[in-house]
Amino acid sequence: MTASYRPIFLMLGFVITWTATETIVGTLLNRYPTFQVVWLHYLTLLMMWVAIIAIRAPGTLVRTQKPVTQIFRAVFLLLMPVSWAFAVRSGFGHTVNAAFWAAPILVILFSALLLKERPGVVTFLAATVGSIAAVLIYAHGPIPVGLVWFAVLAMPVSFSLFLVLSRSLRSETIMANLFYLTAGIVIILSPFIPFIWVALELQHILHFAITGVLGLLALSLLNRAAFEASLVPTAPLLLVPVPLAILVGWLTSDGGYNSYSFLLLAIICVACAIPLLTALNASLKRNNP
Question: Less Cβ crowding at N or C end of the chain, within 10 Å?
Fold first, then answer.
């Protein structure tokens, strides 16, 4: 794997494992309160990570030069499911799910604003058009009103800021980054858990163990991707779950899709291909000056 392609495959690995994790976690939301599921998920990650690192170098877990950034990153990641839960309870589940796909262009905008990392024209257009197409595919819900707008917008904004802050922590160790992220979420939610706790069924403990492993893998891939290079060129890859979800829908249902849907899907697929094509073009230029 060359240097040009490594960030792409790392980001792609993060997106796929993150999606798999969220899918499994989502199956538990009908059985337990949202905050309990989130708390147990990150508690499992935290315990696994401490068990792995504490054996060799426990001091590395808390050693950081950017404690404020670490805390804000945990807060932004927690804000994502909080805003989603609020929007769903308010009857705007489809709307908030559609709004989430604005994340690629938001990552680019926040990277430019906070990290001074500028996108290429092609990448910017791919992220913008791809995000719009993805939002349109899922935009079947009612238009939000009042505070619900905040929840709908907070979901993609918080996730995008989480990713950008992950890049800003590239000088920190992965040991500290994963510790502060998981510990921060667990600490924030812990005071509320006794009031909402629902007893766990035995089979669901396995679910949390699986999502713990997948979650650690996803966060490790993100940490490495953020260390390797800017997340800006690979931002369109955040749209990869859209065609995957539509493909699964085609295979598991008889739902019809019109030419408009196919057009939007084609746009998203092209947007997802842009990072690879851009890297390929850069590689060819280096090899053939």
Answer: C
